[in-house]
Amino acid sequence: MLMAKRGLILSTTAALTAAVAVVGFQLANPSAAAFKSSPKELVDEVWQVINREYVDGNFNKVDWQQTRRKYLSRDYASKAEAYRAVREMLKTLDDPYTRFMDPEQFKSMQIDTSGELTGVGIQLGMDENTKKLTVISPIEGSPAARAGILAKDIIITIAGKSTEGMDINQAVALIRGPSGTKVKLGVQRGGRTFDVELERAKIEVHPVKAEVRDSGIGKVGYIRLTQFNGNAASDMRKAIQSHVDQNVKGFILDLRSNPGGLLYSSAEIARMWLDNATIVSTIDRKGESERLTANRQALTDKPLVVLVDGGSASASEILSGALQDNKRAVLVGTKTFGKGLVQSVHRLGDESGLAVTIAKYYTPNGTDINHSGIKPDISIELTDSDRERLVKNRDLIGTIEDPQYAKALEVLTKRVQNPQLPSVSRN
User: Fold this and answer.
1) pLDDT tens digit sequence for 112-121
2) Of the listed 320, 339, 350, 407, which one is catalytic?
3) Where are the domains of the chain?
4) How confident is the model at residue 409 (pLDDT cuts 50, 70, 90)?
5) Is 112 a catalytic residue?
6) Which fold has domain 119-203?
7) Residue 339 is a catalytic residue
8) Which helix (H) or strand (E) holds 156?
9) CATH says 206-339+360-417 is which class?
10) How do beta strands 278-284 and 133-138 pair?
């Protein structure tokens, strides 16, 4: 197996638009001719990658050697048969973030991390307790967002088919389709269910939206980051520098409903706010740790407040955790999603792909947020009426009419007026 390039991804979700948090790729290019003559080669290739890299050396109590014997004892007459076998084999690991992608799905994932999407704009995850397909967040400006889909909504049907027992890849296959066509989703939100018809479309992801605003303390920089894709770091740098040049008094960084993205993008953005500090640590199955640090490249030391919620996941949690643990920012909002997994992505011989969970990540204080999420310093929930109002008029998000933003501005105002305030006690 020839390794052309290596990298990692943070697993937060498998998105219906193929948006997972990508840090890079490990590209494997075995002989295409060998695969064509024997689809079994693909099955063994996937097994070998899992055997070498999977985060749990006990493979979640699966006899992985026996698994190899079982699946290599079969004959596969086509790619489709090999694909089904691979998915069946991976399902035994009970890890929705270790997954196989056919060539179309793999291409979509690569497109997503570049910042260009096609689909309905839903980041979809598998709830580890209920095993239900759950919305992490809709993508800003997407058909799903315009239709009012919210984080934590449960997708119960797709085009009339029940999602019970359906994995993320199957959901992706049902929801994807040509731009301009429609798909109907059955949604459960709290105690009620309803249908939403969405028109598939090309989605341009502009991950950074920035604005300098007047306030009672002078100019304030508001930056909303919706995804950590390939453009996020450069766009963030431009936004911060522009605000610094306009002499803002402080910043509000909005990470709400940000499902994550590139690991190294989140680290690079953290370095724009931190001077000399640990950003994140990863630990693999051998206990080997890699630490990413800030190295005196901060663009500003002005006061910072970060907005988070249940849709802030993965790379968002790395950034917010680094800023919180290093006392660089005050976090306002609600508890984050709680996904702390690192993945390696492999391109396989027929241009299909494999994402493998290979490590966990920890905040600078050593917190494993994979199940618990990150608690904000100051908690403020939106009421149902607040949510409905903001969904109906999304232009109100990040304004004084948004209760969480209003609280963030209040906190920032106090920090600007009294820089010596002690660290906030978490509640």
Assistant:
1) 666 666 789 8
2) 339
3) 119-203, 206-339+360-417
4) very high
5) no
6) Pdz3 Domain (2.30.42)
7) yes
8) strand 154-158
9) alpha beta
10) unpaired
